[in-house]
Amino acid sequence: MAKRSFPLSKVYGLLEPGPVTLVTTAFRGRTNVMAMSWQTMLEFEPPLVACVVSNRNFSFELLRSSRECVINIPTVELAKEVVRCGNTSGRKVDKLGALGLTAVPAAQVGAPLLEECWASLECKVVDTRMVAKYCLFVLEVVKAWVDRSRKDPRTLHHRGRGRFMVAGETISLPSRAK
Length: 178
Ligand SMILES: Cc1cc2nc3c(=O)[nH]c(=O)nc-3n(C[C@H](O)[C@H](O)[C@H](O)COP(=O)(O)O)c2cc1C
Prior knowledge:
Number of helices: 5
Distance between the termini: 35 Å
Radius of gyration: 16 Å
Strand content: 35-45%
Bound molecules: flavin mononucleotide
């Protein structure tokens, strides 16, 4: 067998589900953005997403207080900004301004869309029962925006410790799945 034992501490990098995202939050005049990749779909429609936002992050406070956020999906062109969003806290600095990211007003939530991202999902917190134990929020996507002119968006997928896999090619196969 070619496979070898692998450290449990690195398993997340194998299973990490969706693309790395940039989550924007806003509350009482403060706006922030952080990198997130621990999110997963829970339901098709209305779309429900579960995500883990650590209580050590400033975004946790803004999300818990406002009960709203936008999940923005960046592509490889924003890789450096993604890493900076994920390695600095917005508690004392305006990360959006520092990174030159453009905030666009959302339709249904107070947090902004990020102009430079390929897609943006406006979300409301609908279940906080697992926040205390796991920092896990259940979000409902109430409005979605996608730049359809970008056919094969090259999203980033975190492999751990600053390594990313870049998606891009789309293949179509017969399938019963939605
Ligand atoms: C690729 C990447 C993925 C990340 N995923 C998550 C995540 O899913 N949940 C989380 O709480 N923090 C995650 N982080 C860490 C936060 O983005 C980081 O702690 C950030 O500085 C928090 O910013 P804030 O204090 O301004 O909210 C990730 C960081 C990187 C670089």
